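2 proteins. here.
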Amino acid sequence: MKIIAYLTAILGCLFRLACYVFLRVIPFTLAKYLLPPLYALHLLGLLLCTRKVNARAPNKEKSEHETSAKLESPTHLKTLFSRLYSILLCLPSPFHPLNWANLAVNTLLLAAAAEFAITPFFDKAQNVTFTRVGAIYANGAKIVVRYPSPSVEDSSVDVLWREVSNGTHWQQGPTANLSQHSDWVATVKVENLLPDTQYEYILVDSNRTTLPYPSHPIRFSTFPDSRLAGGGVFRFLVSSCVTPNFPYRGPLHRKAIPGFELLAQSLNLAPVSSSSQETQLGHARQSPVDFLLFLGDFIYADVPVYIGDKREAYRRLYRRNYQNIGFRSIYEHIPIFHTYDDHEVDVFHFSIWVVFNVHFIQIINNYMGEENDLKPPYPNAADAFRLYNANANYGSIDDGQFYYDFRRGDTAFFVMDTRRYRSGLQDPDFSTRSMLGEGQLTALLSWLSQVNHTAAFKFVVSSVPFTTLWLHDAQVDSWAGFPNERRLLLDAFHTVPNVIILSGDRHEFAAIAFNGDTPESHTVYEFSTSPLTPKSQDNVTRARMEVHGSEIREYIEVLPKEEVLKYLPIGNIKWSDIRVDTRNESQPLMYLNTFIDGRPSYNLTIKGSPLVKERPTAVEFSVTSTLRDMFCKFGLVPRQWL
């Protein structure tokens, strides 16, 4: 009897723990296989224990008499604590109401988990209407429109725009051609605008009748012309990874995305359709942020459960996010530039991988494209990402690619695609693996050469962390699993001043400083949302010379290769607020403020090296000879350089 009772309690506690993790910590897909059996086994244990108790009790009246006597005795307080203890630890009890209470608690938890898991199947969000601004140029901007018309197969919406300051008449803009085939989504570009100027736009039908949405104009500001001399100040946000109603808050919040809602609240933003007095007067709120960089996992195709690899299944997940009020408050005020990561594509799968000759079996979701665009479920996943997010990004230097670069004044950005071309795990020799592929690697290093003397700060954006300090599957999934390619890039980064890596994926924040092998090496910084070990295991030893009168002294410095400046693992909602100030060419500045659950948690100021405005002498080459030598060193010589 005791063995069954204890086993029942263990099963009940495991069930509640799994529910808590699934609903509040990690919505792991294995929950659909784990929770029902645990619930059923705990229920079976309760029934067995209850049957044995009933067999031992001669009659109900005696049991009730004993219960009444206990409650009237001086030890009734101890009895109450004992019963509470039974409920907390799922212990079977001879007092039947306690068993019913345990069953009720577990049933409610199972119902909550089921509601969270099946909501994506029923919440199709087919009628969501939205518009947002994507890529911003000095002379234009990309605009995304979704305006469904279920009664027809296709329709069109015109964009009218004007400059805000002088109140000019509306100018005819591009036409967004919408259809069922494209899920009523289209991306257009407004052109012939002035640099560093604020504009606004509305949507009209073919008769130039203003459409009911948006109820007030959407505003945006063009970027300054990067060809003109002089620095400036701007501010942008960095974040990643969102799932509706997670952490779980109940069925009334099934459309909520707490991270976006908290971010909108902190920026004092609301949808343009808000009924506030300010909006009614037609004065749209001016966002204090220039743009948002979203670093991947915008949708979770595989959690809490995988709803299928059909094209409509992926599109539905994007629509669910765009219907969220918090996100609407963001994208109606702030331009957003996207990349993607594994959860936009793949499902959980069993994987066998090898690290240092040790075999591991793990259930992971680390999508590896292997340069195969036909590999399921990539075609349908890429279709949805392209429609809703990628088409509004900047164009790639190579047609049809998701990696791209852009400039905001004298600051340059390169956004990588870390999934489409990454090697598989078949080869146990990780030194031969590539994350970027030859074409993207060439584009990145060519960009680095071009911006070396023309951009004060160079931001390299990766959906996965660049540091190697992660454990478990990150040793394969992050840049740690691509040692040769990573070392090539890091050597190149150390030769260029003011390189900063922005990464996501791991749901925690860390600031890393990469120190080079020589005093002339430029420090490279990474700001990532990922867990890691508290310090680097490898050091670099650098010698530097200083002249003191007629004496030359040598100093030896021992620094960690990857120095952890800050590690913040706690918190469900994280974003970084970055401000760049390049007005002083001799010392450009970058200010980082990281927020966790809406509260400032870490700040850092980086004093950059001065920008030396000179170009390489061998201008006929697409990259510098230094980068060419690095490629040769690692046996990587792109064909176009031969």
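next one coming up
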Amino acid sequence: MFTGRLIMKITLIALLLGVSLCAAPAFAAVDSLVQIVSGPVATGGSNSIASFGYDPIGDVMYVSSFGAGGSLRKVVDVSTNPVGTTVVFESSLQLYYRDGDADRGVGSPMQSGISFNPLPIVNGNNVIAPYSMAIIADASTTYKPGFSSGTANRDPAASKRFYTYNRGELLSGGNASAVYTTIATMADLNNAAGVPLNTTTNNGRQVAWSGNGQWAYFGESSADHGGIWKLDPLTGDMERLVTGDANTEPAVVHNAGVDTIFFRGIASTGNVGGIDKITYDGTTASAASVAVSIADLRSFLEADSTMTPTIFAMSSDSEGNVYFSHSDSTPERRGIFKLDTEGRLAKVATQAERNQYLTELLGATTAANSNTLRMQPRTIQHPTAGAITQILYAENATNGVTGVNVFKTGDFDRNGVAGQAADMSQFSAALKVRGAAITNVDNHKFDLNANAVVDWKDVKILQQFVDLPNGDANFDGVLDLVDLDVVGANYYTASPTANKTWATGDFASVDPLYATTAVDANIVNLVDLQLFADTWLNVLDQPITKTQLTSRGYVGQFLDDVLDVFGFNTALAGDFDLNGVVDGADFLAWQRQFGTNVTPGTGADADGDGLVDGDDLAVWQGNFGATAAAPVAAAVPEPSALLLGTLAVAGVAGLRRRQSVR
């Protein structure tokens, strides 16, 4: 997490050096994903990427790889012309693992997190400068002398779990102890957890620094060590702040001296699959509580109770937004998501976008790995969107580092402003009926919950970020009679085909969650009209007259329903011009029609006998000066109540009529 002051400093340095923090251009179909460092530069060959750490001040990255010949490489000029060189070889790391004892066996090197200190660390009278030291999390194992395998032969005291890196460089054959300093072993973690004989830990995730930069947090998921821990980078002291299966790279948001630490949901909160949090002020940690419930996350993703979200990586930016990756593919909902400071959820990049990006980058159809680990946000200057957050992550398909541009939700033309006419026009054009899969790859950017669909659910997400009232069919930010005309043209009595979207008046459903299988899916009916009127009258408090409604050319059932939902269902006797007032204009209407036969109850026929005569004038005289009460639409009930009412009451017979024509 970078502070605002540090970001300003980084930007100033970049300007002074003439360095653009804007990475290479993204691909046409996927403008949110950018290759930052290629595999050959990052890992030096065919080795798999394990982790990386980024220094935004120097624009330098250190990348660790695993497998035969795995190494730690330094990449300079990351944002302009990345060049990589090996600074710690695998042989040097193994010497460090063995503590100088060549008779010890070691597991495959696995540096699973590299996290540089973002702020100065006070060490007595000394100060460790920002980005001059990294905490490396390691998941490898060192064995007892004479052994190279077997759980019982692991040596907890020699198995490094966390060590610091001083950014030094070694020649091939040197011992990495010259650049790495052990701060915590498996034995240290055992002792902190009170399980001294344990030989299994699972801390293979990068740490997150505290808001004041003086310590770090890490997640652990093994049975004896599971939880969120505090780690002192100088002494190696560890303290478990919460117990549970916290197999996550945590995120930290700092405010007024208190850290809020986010991590995957744990059993003690009843929120496995969701997102939990604790607060910590450096002395006292709160109990774990729910940040995003699994129910809310499933609802956002439109996944049923059979899916338990899987969150391995999290991070945060300087504004306090939290980012997390979700890797469960049953159903397909993988991607990187944002939980903003107002508690709103939106996708940043979907699995489909990653697939398309990699396919175009590599020149062959490529399926992205489920995980987007080691997420590290930075600020860049985008050529059209301005200053934005970019999340760096380890891309397994390239064994390099990819950046995800975090555009404002609703800024589809990438000009830095969300919800403008051009944005809404693009979004509206991409809308399909409920549950219809995206067929145009360019439309994945409009999919705001990573389900490979752009439909009603995405509209509801978008409404949280832009000015889009319920009923605004043409997406112009205004609810007016033009929108009501759209509803009328597509009302079930005029157009019964189930092919409607929000843009053609399908704003709601009798189903509480508007499932794709709802009985009124993709149909415009009374429920949509009720929501329209409720928004007009009770949310926006806009005036309306009966004449405005009757002069639009509406007829039949739609006209009856419109007058009903807007509160004009009781006629005002003598109000022949339907303007809500019995006045001289109505007398003139009677005078012009006097002696004519009309459809009973229409025109100036106040008594409904089909003849405009003196009796109708008497009604006018008796009500002269009367006004209709201001229309107030009945508040639209909660969906569950609406569903019951619609199915049970003849007053919502529109549903039955609609069902009969499907």
